[in-house]
CRAL-TRIO domain-containing protein
Amino acid sequence: MDSASSSEDDSNNIVQHKGWSENNEPRMFEKTVEEKGCKEIVEALTEEELEAMPDENMPMRHFRADKGNVTKAIKRIKYAIQWRQDFGVERILRAACNGNPTNDEEKEIRSILMEESSTGKLYVRNHDNDNRAILYLYPVRENSNHPEHNIMNLVYQIERSIACTEKNGLEKIVIVADFKNWKLKDASPMEVTKKTIHILQECYVERVAKFFITNAPIIFRTFWSLVQPFLDPVTKEKVVFCTSNKGILKLRTSFDEKKVEKCALGVSDLKAFDVTDYYATPLDTTFDEM
């Protein structure tokens, strides 16, 4: 085979990326504008970066996140892709989804995740009324003083909630953070808090629809005043404090009271979280779908 034929075959084997895929998320701009923007983003990425994208719609999310600013979107998507590779997101998912790991690295990762998840401080359960997976966060159930392990667990749970949402043709998840009985001593170290915010804002752009904060005590205001400066305006708009009548109404209209936990005004006695059962199921399965 001559070099020209070989080059043509290699070209045919390259996956052609559009930078968008059809789903049920609402558009921010006209279809032609969004597709043109995605095309420009894709053309600015290397083949290695394109292959490292977690899904075809990543360019579209960045285009929308940056309000159509292609230059900014390119910079941020390159950072997010590099972060996924450096952090080893795919490696974590392989280990978590392997019920019978055979190598030491996978065994260690799976063990860390199961220990971090053992108290049910962070896990995916059911969906909201728009079919978005719900990621529950219970700060008072914190059982770790290892920042790296804590963040690893966070990333896995975000990935799981995304997988549970994408099967319904959507991309954005819902987070419910319950602060019942929370005290300042329960606050995460600022290092972990800042990393959490950074990951949600820069590594998972356009992945959160709403962030509900329930049962926040008065003392929580002190912690919130420290956290707010690290939130960008878009993230702040997604935060719903469920202490006012308006916040409570938003809770009631967002969820089926028979399918959510008590912190989200649920009325059913849902089964208690079990970490073994949770990790025995596929990535795109919420705890109540087992």
Notes: Confidence is low (pLDDT under 50) at residues 5-14. The first helix runs from residue 3 to 13.
